[in-house]
Amino acid sequence: MINKIKNKLKIKLRNYKISKISFQEYSDYKNFFIQEDKKSNWESSTFSEIIEKYLKQNKKLNLVEIGVARGETAKFTLSRLDSSISTYTGVDPYESNYDSTDIFSHFNQQLMDNLYIYVVEKINDPRFNLMRKKSNQAYLEFEDNSIDAIFIDGNHSYSAVLEDIKNWRSKIKKNGLMIGDDYLTFDGVRKAVEETFRNINQVGNTWFVKI
User: Fold this and answer.
1) Is the pLDDT higher at 194 or at 42?
2) Residue 169 above 70 pLDDT?
């Protein structure tokens, strides 16, 4: 009981410190993000590895990523799949406080605003478009059967993941891929996926299904 209380206090203190990170100039934010990239243990290769394995015969792929964060998955995928990609659309509102259980959500809004600028600058690829919108708004701008693969890694709450699956499913081409992260990390992710699909594939912390 005491350990649980201590852990909760540690998490609250960590989240408080994160919420107070602030700088005067964009250059300071940029340096902060660069250092965060270097320290990160986020897996940026899984999306492209799954595409490579299951859509390797496809060329001119149209890809979508929900929840871009610092842009490492987008940057890595564009580099790895290179000429196989026609378009890569990132969807992220860069809004603070979207989910109290997600550490990334505790960054303040000023930091999020500068992070959006950083990602656009960092990727700098004509195939890449970063939509600063919520995913439940962005999906309306895509035609049905227009996406080869989507990576769901935004709001990890049960209701948000369920909504993303429902909204984006029809946008994926036949035999296309719906892929999502944090299958083992967040109970809400796992619940939403398992309620929707039967034939779920898993690679580490990532789930995927063929549509």
Assistant:
1) 194
2) yes
